[in-house]
Amino acid sequence: MAKNGAGVVHVIVGDDPKPSSAAAVIVMGMISLLIIGVAPDVLGALVDERRLAPSGLGVTAMLELMTLALSTGLAGAFLKPENLRLIGAGSALFLAAVNVATCHTSGLVVFAMRAAAGVPEGLLLWITVGMITRSRTPERWAAIFFTARVASELTTALAFAFAIIPRAGADGAFATMALVALLGLPAALLLPDRYGPLPQDPAKTAPPKAGAPPLRGLIALFATVVYVSANGAVSVYLQPLAHRAGLSADVARTAVWASLAAQILGGALATAMAGRVRYLPVFAVVTAGFLAVWAVFGLHPAPLVFIGADAVAGAVALLVGPFLVPMIIEADPSRRAAMQSAGAQALGGGAGPLMAALIVGDRDVHGVLWMGASLLVAGFAVIAWLHFTNRAAPEATAS
Prior knowledge:
The chain has helices at 19-32, 34-48, 54-78, 84-102, 108-134, 138-182, 184-188, 215-235, 238-244, 249-273, 279-297, 303-320, 324-331, 341-359, 367-398. The protein is an all-alpha fold and 399 residues long.
């Protein structure tokens, strides 16, 4: 273990990464999840250009996030955290190539290209998650990562809304995303070449093993998927919801960047709260916030009200994101489940649009609001159960 102050991230096992290495790790995660922040703009543009049907919007988002989650999960379970520079550089280059290949495509070819993009995105995210789960304050570093990620998404969404998509359409957006992916090549040179092993569960005497997490860790991951899928289902249909309320695509694009700006505030608040506030009250506040926002979406609001409501959704989404990690670590102290946290979040982000695509018609998308609310409440119920049964277990043992 490196001496205190040797790096900006103090890890449980192994050496603390240098500040430049930690920054490079965060950049890899920012590149991997860029699509999440700009998907409503990019996929909405494909729908407007009649290259995708409204129902295909959800399928496209699902495919990319599903393959992202799968590659992150498989890497976390089976890949050794070695040769990170080579993996980072190769993934960034492959992602750039896929983004370029998506230009001038439509229909099923878009599905295939975006599914392929999820593979390098998942590997880049695995690199970032590896550092966060090994840190002594994972919620703080998750909050820093989320905030930095959203800042990049905000910058890109503003460029898409006001310059790139109005002039060059969806193809201009994909070309821009390819250029962003190429930033991973110089960042890869600064990555640590390897990470230390995951810390040992304090309740165990045997050394930690790779593979599947224990049952409570799997339940925590399931709760993450369900909870995150709620917002994933609603957010990807932001532009159709705006159209249903009689609002233009410009209003929807404004709502996207307003939401991203609010997410920076939510991430900053989460960073300040990390280590000081328990996760369950945060989940309770966020659940109430989402339900209020989606009620507004269903009332055919005025443009400014629609934009303001989406900004609130963005703030609470970033507020809760970093607290998913300590929730999972409480359920599984071995941190094997925490290594799958980002994959579970991406899986939820993809499962939500998929489920929404099954119930949303081309004329009415309001059903997604009811589905999102149901998933949100169900996920929160499982998270609360995990927390209270975890607190009850030591008391039962003592008795």
